[in-house]
Each structure stands twice: as C-alpha cells, then as structure tokens.
Amino acid sequence: MAAIPPTDPEGSADAGSRAASDRGDLPSLYYGIARSADATTVHDESGALTFFNAACSRLLGYDADELASLTGHGIVHPDDAGLLAEATERATDSPVGAADTELRLVRKDGSAVRVTLGLSRVEVSGRRYLVVESVPA
C-alpha cells in the first residue's frame, strides 16, 4: 500500500511545515515510519489511509492488500469510534497538533487489541496529514 509517498504538485516532497521539517521531508518521514516497530498509519485530510507500515499489518493480522482496502470504521472497535473522533479533532484542530487516546482495534480474526494511539498532525506543501502510532496498551 502506498509504497510511494505523496509529493507536492511540482513532484518534490518538500517539508512545508515546522512539524514535517522537524523530521525531514515526507519521504524521510515515510522511511522512518516504514522502519518503525510501532504500528503506524498516515491519513490524508479526508481521513483516507495513504500509507502504513508492516508493523500495522502484523498487529491487525491483515496482509497489505487487505489492510489497504479497509476503512478506519472496519478497524476501530465500534464502541470506541467516538474516542478516535475526539482524538482526531484534538490533533487536527489544536495548536500543538497532537493528541493521545486509548482504544480497541479489531484484528482480522475478530479479536480486539487495546492500544494507545498517538496522533500527530504534519503539513507538507500545504497539505495536512495525520500520523497515527499504535502501541499495544
């Protein structure tokens, strides 16, 4: 899924904000995410999944193609959807651009795993992304 990170309209992945520049440009950010042991996803402004790492596939038990086709509603435990919505709003609207929450994700086999989510807003070339790190609680 999304092995090629998004770029700005001119084709470069210029880090256009303080948050992204703290970590380097978007390809560098994606490289770090891909190598992370934490299950991590990147979502665009509409909430669509644009990138995830292998740790995310392992945590949830889906192969890459299956995970790429799922929506957040299919992964977040239905009783915890409100927690995710609140954390997303805090991360996208707050001046610091970050929020944490604890909730349950649903694995492919139907079992639930409690995780602590760390949500961070990054902006690259005028486009906002939400980076979500999931660590089993």
TrEMBL record:
<feature type="domain" description="PAS">
    <location>
        <begin position="44"/>
        <end position="95"/>
    </location>
</feature>
<dbReference type="InterPro" id="IPR035965">
    <property type="entry name" value="PAS-like_dom_sf"/>
</dbReference>
<feature type="region of interest" description="Disordered">
    <location>
        <begin position="1"/>
        <end position="21"/>
    </location>
</feature>
<dbReference type="InterPro" id="IPR000014">
    <property type="entry name" value="PAS"/>
</dbReference>
<dbReference type="InterPro" id="IPR013655">
    <property type="entry name" value="PAS_fold_3"/>
</dbReference>
<dbReference type="Pfam" id="PF08447">
    <property type="entry name" value="PAS_3"/>
</dbReference>
<protein>
    <submittedName>
        <fullName>PAS domain S-box protein</fullName>
    </submittedName>
</protein>
